[in-house]
Amino acid sequence: MRDAYREELAEITDGLEQMALIAASAIGRATTALLDADLQLAETVIAADDRLDQLQRDLEERAIAVLARQQPVATELRTVVTALRISAELERSGDLALNVAKLARRRFPDHAVPHELHATVLEMGHVAQRLMAKAADVIATRELKTALELEGDDDAMDDLHRALFRRLMDDRWQHGVEDAVDVTLAGRFYERFADHAVSVAKRVVYLVTGTYADDLPPQ
Amino acid sequence: MRDAYREELAEITDGLEQMALIAASAIGRATTALLDADLQLAETVIAADDRLDQLQRDLEERAIAVLARQQPVATELRTVVTALRISAELERSGDLALNVAKLARRRFPDHAVPHELHATVLEMGHVAQRLMAKAADVIATRELKTALELEGDDDAMDDLHRALFRRLMDDRWQHGVEDAVDVTLAGRFYERFADHAVSVAKRVVYLVTGTYADDLPPQ
User: Fold this and answer.
1) A210: domain CATH number?
2) C-alpha distances in angstroms, B79 versus A212, A216, B129, B197, B201?
3) DSSP state of B108
4) Does B169 touch chain A if contact means CB atoms closer than 8 Å?
């Protein structure tokens, strides 16, 4: 493989890793903004989303340029096609962090999350951020073992999501419908964010093994 | 362009159109299942989603095969890359119809949607189905005028979504938190479904004009 070609493929991978790290940071900041009712912090997440959208467009143009110029086949072709799919997942993750930040902004100066759910939502934010940071790592290293861990890690998010719903449905819920609506939406945003991180990892698994992660024997 | 090549590109477009029509039908049936608390109908939507996932995988493999074999450039290259992105939007739309069907199943034999919101949710289902059917049309015809209409059509969904939230937040809401949670989720599913239809149309606009729909002068 010529150096310029190798360089182009490496730049695409770097771009994806950068997008994943921005998304991970965005969901962390959005969670803090939500729990602290911090409008200024929420606004930084909202502004950062444009950056992610721009990176996605750039990456797509770059992928198309590589396809046209290098006419890759086999592994390199799958790398470029996978990059297109991963960049879409990451752009969408950024939108979900944006949604969390917008929730904080809409309820400002009130808190959207009642105190007794603070710990659960904080943990959801941490799990989401950790999953996406790990997805960034998987993009960079293509390590199969780490990639396959993500689905298991996501179980923690599912447990938290279920716990959140149990609290909502509890007869002792005292916070009225507006809080219930916002907590429902927040729960959904975190769950979807985590799903995208898992999808990114699955895409890398497919790239490395040629097999969908669901069809692999458990590690 | 050789006939076999032209044929391969046409098959990809046909596959996308078929996916969009399946998604449109799925959201229509899911809405009926939700409003009628019809478990059997809900199950057909849940089963149809596998079909959509399979079509998406097939289409992706076919796109990769065309890239490898024909090494397309210029318009044909963009067509194939756009097809990859559109297929992901359509697969995700199917998941959202699935989510609506699962909502119906989870609450069966109860109704998840209170009577006084029946008309609003029905209309959301109709708008969603119409938008996706129109997206299928845009995929097949690449008609710029129709493609550009979709964003305007989506305003109807936004209005319905706002109306739904107003009812939820209304002090006269008598249906408790469980219904509020389910209506919130349903509203979100319909809104996202419509967004995907709009994204499909925007992708086609970009393919035809080389310009993002947001940057075009209003028609």
Assistant:
1) 1.20.58.220
2) 25, 32, 25, 18, 13
3) T
4) yes
Nearest residue of A to residue B63 by CA position? A81
Residue type, A97: A
**What pLDDT, on a 0 to 100 scale, did the predictor assign at position B215?**
66
DSSP string, chain A: --HHHHHHHHHHHHHHHHHHHHHHHHHHHHHHHHHHT-HHHHHHHHHHHHHHHHHHHHHHHHHHHHHHHH---HHHHHHHHHHHHHHHHHHHHHHHHHHHHHHHHHHTTS-SS-GGGHHHHHHHHHHHHHHHHHHHHHHHH--HHHHHHHHHHHHHHHHHHHHHHHHHHSTT--SHHHHHHHHHHHHHHHHHHHHHHHHHHHHHHHHHHSS-GGGSPP-
A71 touches chain B (CB under 8 A): yes
Is there a contact between A77 and B63 if contact means CB atoms under 8 Å apart? no
DSSP 8-state code for residue B214: G
Condensed to tens digits (0 to 9), the pLDDT of residues B27-60 reads 999 999 999 999 999 999 998 899 999 999 999 9
Q: How many residues does chain B have?
A: 219
- The range of the structural domain enclosing residue B165 comes to 3-215
| 3-state secondary structure labels for all residues of A80-118 | HHHHHHHHHHHHHHHHHHHHHHHHHHHHCCCCCCCHHHH
Does the beta-carbon distance from A73 to B68 stay under 8 Å?
A: yes
Distance from C-alpha of A62 to C-alpha of A39, rounded to nearest angstrom:
35
- The answer, for A77 touching chain B at a CB cutoff of 8 Å, is yes
Output the furthest CA–CA distance in chain B (Å, rounded): 66
ipTM: 0.90
Q: Residue A9 in contact with residue A79, Cβ under 8 Å?
A: yes
Domain count, chain B: 1
Give the tens place of pLDDT for each residue, A144-177.
Answer: 999 999 999 999 999 999 999 999 988 888 898 9
Return the pLDDT at B213: 65
Contacts of A179 (CB under 8 A, 6+ apart): A112, A113, A114
